[in-house]
Amino acid sequence: MPELAEVEFFRKQWDAGLRQKVTRAELHRGQRIFRGVNESRLAAALQGSTYLDSEARAKLMCFRFSRGVWLGIHLGMTGKLRVESPAFALGKHDHLILVQKKQALVFSDPRKFGRVHFHQGMEAPTWWTKLPPAVTSPEFTLPLMTAFLQRRARLAVKAALLVQSAFPGVGNWMADEILWQAGIDPRVLCGRLAAKRLTALWQTAREVCTVALDTIGADFSDPPEDWLIHQRWSKTGVCPRDGLPLKTATIGGRTTRWCPRCQR
DNA sequence: CGAGATGTTCGGCT
DNA sequence: AAGCCGAACATCTC
Q1: Residues of A catalogued as catalytic
Q2: What CATH topology corresponds to A142-258?
Q3: For labelling, which of A62, A167, A175, A235 has a CA lying 20 to 30 Å from the CA of A246?
Q4: A142-151 vs A195-219: helix axis angle to the nearest 10?
C-alpha cells in the first residue's frame, strides 16, 4: 500500500510512544524483513532506550532512539505501523514490536516485502543520508529532472516516474495521478517530451506530492475529489474531467490507468 | 481457483 | 556496457 504520503501517515502512528522508554523489543527472527540486520544486536540496543523522534523521506522512515540507536523501516507493499496495548502478543504478520509502559509500537507486513534497517552510532547511517532530493524540496529542480529523463530517453515516462533515485517516494498510484494531472500519456517516451511538457510534469509532480502529504500524509483524509485516485481502482473508473472510461495497460511492469482523451 | 496487488531487486538479454 | 524487462519474493483478496 504505502508510498510517500501513506508512509508519512504511518510514521506518525508511533508518535504515541515519543519520549518514552522501550522496556522490551520483540521480533520474529529469520524473516526476510531483517536481512542484513543483526537481530540480536537490534533487540538488545532497543531495550532500555528512549524513542526520541522520527522522520519520513521517500518510502523510508527513520526512528531515532537514545544511545545513538537508528531504526529504519520500509513498508514494502503491505507494511503498516500501529499501536497496541503493552500486553499485546505478536500476531502472525507482526515482525517487530517495541513494548513501552503505556503501549506497544507494532510493525506488521503480511507479504514481507518491507525491510528493517539498524544502526548504532552518533553519525547518521548511509541508508538514511544517501537518499536523493525529495520531489517537494528546492533541490528537486527542473534541470535535475530533465537531465534524468534525457538519460532515460527510451523509457516510457510512466516507468521513469517509478525510478526511486529520481522521484523518491512516488509509487504506482501517484505516478498515474501526476501524468493524468499533467495531461501526459504514460506511454510517451521520455526523450519525446518537449520543454513545455517537462515543465508541466515537474510542476505537477511537486503539486501532487505536496497535496498528498497535506491530506493522506496528515490524517489519511481523502485528496481532492476530482483526483484520478478515486477512479483508478475501479474497473469501471472514468476520467474525472470528461467522464470517458479509463484505459488500462501494463507499463513499466505496473498496472497503469489513464484518460485516452486528456493524456497525449 | 486464478489473477492481481500502492515495492524492490536480481539475472539476463540487447 | 548501460539500459531495459520480466521474474521472483510471500500472502491475501477479489
Answers
A1: 2-3, 59, 254
A2: Helicase, Ruva Protein; domain 3 (1.10.8)
A3: A167
A4: 110
